[in-house]
Every structure is written in structure tokens, then in C-alpha cells.
């Protein structure tokens, strides 16, 4: 029985050390730019031997890839929360962007790995793929409240809107070192202006949609 318990104990210890390395990387990313941090730095901050750190990650880039996946999942959980009440689809987009801005303000590591110009290309590509899921969440939020028109390749359009907002977030960090409220508003304008090329300004609310079988009199 004792021998059978060893793998589970070893696995738990390994998970604990891995979590400690990820937590240490988060802390360091609040203090330094991502390209100024090494895996040795992370191991020292976590209080873990260098050899153990290299057992889990080949290099800092591999750790960043795991961390950015966690950060993207956290952000998406924030965005996925219900949005109500709403008066129009632009309000939905604005609420999502406000939520994203609040998340980035509270998580400097997310700013570094998802928005910064110093982000390693491989990590940025990983986060861009996660943006596809984020764009689906926005699309679903709008679709929950409004009847959207049948637009070819609609998911691609929403993805581009997310990238437009990300661009303004990134410019704010590059130019000002922080997310300015004015730049968050610019992000809303850019995303809504782009989506407005495909979505009518006013969409019919789903709660105004007739039930199946109900005939709507002609206007």
C-alpha cells in the first residue's frame, strides 16, 4: 500500500512545484519586462532548485506558454459572465471591453504576455488563438439578446473586432505604460466601428421575437 501511494505523492509534489513556478513568474512579470526574466530567475523567486525548474520547462518560453493559457482562461471566465440589462449590441461590446480592461489592470502578467510589444512571438500566437474563443463569447453575448443578421464568415468578423480592441490596449501600454481610460474608450470605438460595417445599429431584441406559430401583422 505504501509503494502504491508514492506516485500520487510525487505527482502532488510536482504539481505544487509547477504551480509555485507559475506564481513566481506572475510576480516577476509585475516587476520586469518578459524578455528580462529567465527560468533561473523564476526558480529563485519560487524557492525551487534550478534542476527542478528545468525538469518542468525547457526554457522560460515554455513556462510563458503555459502561463498565458491560464491567463486567457481566466479572462474568458470574466467575459463569459452574463451581461444584462442591455439596450443595444454596442453596449455589449463596451461591457466586454471594460471587463477585459479591468482584468488587465489587475493582472500585470496578462498585460505583459498578451498585450506588450515585448511578448515573444510564440506566446503572442498562442494568445491570438485564444482570442478566437474570446470573440465567440462576444458573439454569443449579442446573440443572447438580439437577432443578428445572417453574415457570411461572422466569426472571423468578431475575431477582427477583438484584435482591433487589443491593438488599442497594446498602444496604450506602449505609449503610456498603462491602460488609460481614454484608450479603453478608443478600443470600444474601434471594435464597434468595425462591427458596425456588418451589423445594423439597431437589432431586434430576442424578447421581442414572436413565438413559433405566431403571425405578426404586416406594418
Quick structural overview:
The chain has helices at residues 2-29, 39-46, 50-56, 60-79, 89-106, 108-114, 121-145, 154-176, 181-195. The chain is mostly helical and 219 residues long.
Give the SSE map.
Elements (H helix, E strand, L loop, with lengths): L1 H28 L9 H8 L3 H7 L3 H20 L9 H18 L1 H7 L6 H25 L8 H23 L4 H15 L24
Helix pairs in contact: 1-2, 1-4, 1-6, 2-3, 4-6, 4-7, 5-6, 5-7, 5-9, 7-8, 8-9
GO molecular function: DNA-binding transcription factor activity; transcription cis-regulatory region binding
Protein name: TetR family transcriptional regulator
Keywords: DNA-binding
Structure description:
- Residues 38-57 bind DNA.
- It holds the Pfam family TetR_N.
- It is elongated and about 60 Å long.
- The protein has helices at 2-29, 39-46, 50-56, 60-79, 89-106, 108-114, 121-145, 154-176, 181-195.
- It folds into 2 domains: 2-57, Arc Repressor Mutant, subunit A; 62-203.
- 69% of the residues lie in helices and 0% in strands.
- It is an all-alpha fold.
- It contains 9 helices and no strands.
Amino acid at each position: 500500500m505504501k509503494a502504491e501511494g508514492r506516485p500520487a505523492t510525487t505527482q502532488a509534489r510536482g504539481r505544487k512545484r509547477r504551480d509555485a513556478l507559475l506564481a513566481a513568474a506572475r510576480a516577476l512579470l509585475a516587476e520586469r519586462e518578459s524578455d528580462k526574466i529567465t527560468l533561473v530567475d523564476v526558480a529563485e523567486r519560487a524557492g525551487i532548485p534550478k534542476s527542478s525548474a528545468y525538469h518542468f520547462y525547457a526554457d522560460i518560453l515554455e513556462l510563458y506558454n503555459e502561463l498565458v493559457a491560464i491567463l486567457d482562461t481566466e479572462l474568458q471566465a470574466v467575459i463569459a459572465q452574463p451581461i444584462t440589462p442591455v439596450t443595444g449590441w454596442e453596449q455589449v461590446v463596451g461591457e466586454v471591453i471594460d471587463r477585459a480592461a479591468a482584468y488587465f489592470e489587475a493582472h500585470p502578467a496578462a498585460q505583459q504576455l498578451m498585450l506588450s510589444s515585448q511578448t515573444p512571438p510564440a506566446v503572442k500566437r498562442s494568445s491570438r488563438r485564444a482570442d478566437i474563443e474570446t470573440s465567440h463569447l462576444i458573439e454569443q453575448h449579442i446573440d443572447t439578446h438580439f437577432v443578428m443578421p445572417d453574415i457570411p464568415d461572422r466569426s472571423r468578423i468578431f475575431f477582427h473586432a477583438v484584435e482591433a480592441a487589443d491593438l488599442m490596449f497594446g498602444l496604450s501600454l506602449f505609449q503610456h505604460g498603462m491602460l488609460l481610460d481614454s484608450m479603453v474608450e478608443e478600443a470600444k470605438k474601434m471594435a464597434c466601428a468595425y462591427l458596425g460595417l456588418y451589423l445594423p445599429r439597431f437589432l431586434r431584441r430576442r424578447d421581442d421575437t414572436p413565438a413559433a406559430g405566431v403571425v405578426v401583422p404586416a406594418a
